Fold this sequence. Notes:
This is Fatty acid hydroxylase domain-containing protein. By secondary structure, the protein is mainly α.
Amino acid sequence: xxxxxxxxxxxxxxxxxxxxxxxxxxxxxxxxxxxxxxxxxxxxxxxxxxxxxxxxxxxxxxxxxxxxxxxxxxxxxxxxxxxxxxxxxxxxxxxxxxxxxxxxxxxxxxxxxxxxxxxxxxxxxxxxxxxxxxxxxxxxxxxxxxxxxxxxxxxxxxxxxxxxxxxxxxxxxxxxxxxxxxxxxxxxxxxxxxxxxxxxxxxxxxxxxxxxxxxxxxxxxxxxxxxxxxxxxxxxxxxxxxxxxxxxxxxxxxxxxxxxxxxxxxxxxxxxxxxxxxxxxxxxxxxxxxxxxxxxxxxxxxxxxxxxxxxxxxxxxxxxxxxxxxxxxxxxxx
Length: 334
């Protein structure tokens, strides 16, 4: 091939790469936009029926909310902190306490038999785990808490996050869906940014010390990453939507539980599959997102889709571990 042909080939390859990226962005915008349109279209039909079904429950929670407002009368900032920080954080540590018991003792076997990487964390290194817990507590105390306070100031200035009236059921579902989509976009691109070689070794490498993650590692990160990639993607939705405290509390709790499951290292029955993010910790340069939509559009899950882990990336509806029903290929002898 002549030098001129080589130059033309390189330009053509670069153009196709840029075109592929732009095409992926347009596809992502189309899919996300279509999803939002679908949610809005069904807001006053299917969601209305769900709201009617839960009407009695809604009356019950409205009564409890009114009592809570009376209890915290004049202390709205404290109530916001309880709902957005203490409740989600308490659920995070309760959930992780169960996983840490399994990680350190190997019991109960009901959990440990569903381990994804069978040869890792069996049991987990105690010193490594204690260090991770310290970093997580630091992030929650010195970074999450101040960000929640700033969030309250913003939401108080732009709306009424502690309104006496609870939001309707269908509106809560719509807001949770939008928050999930926004988190997917912001987390995917910030996560890929932290994998840039110039940034990775200084920031994100800390999180990837765990090639076989455990639940508490979900928040084990450099402060910069914790702020920009863990907290910010979750905060943007409620701020933009001017969400009610009840919705924000529910969203933060769900987000923390989902990321815990993604890092826990166990593919348990009837819980979301953690295979996707577990593979990311194992291979580093695959599976950057939460939902996997942008990974598919950008091709950052191609290697993952060629593995047994991809076959196991499904909701487990039986009691048989997927490592048994879909085992890895036997290693070739040297």
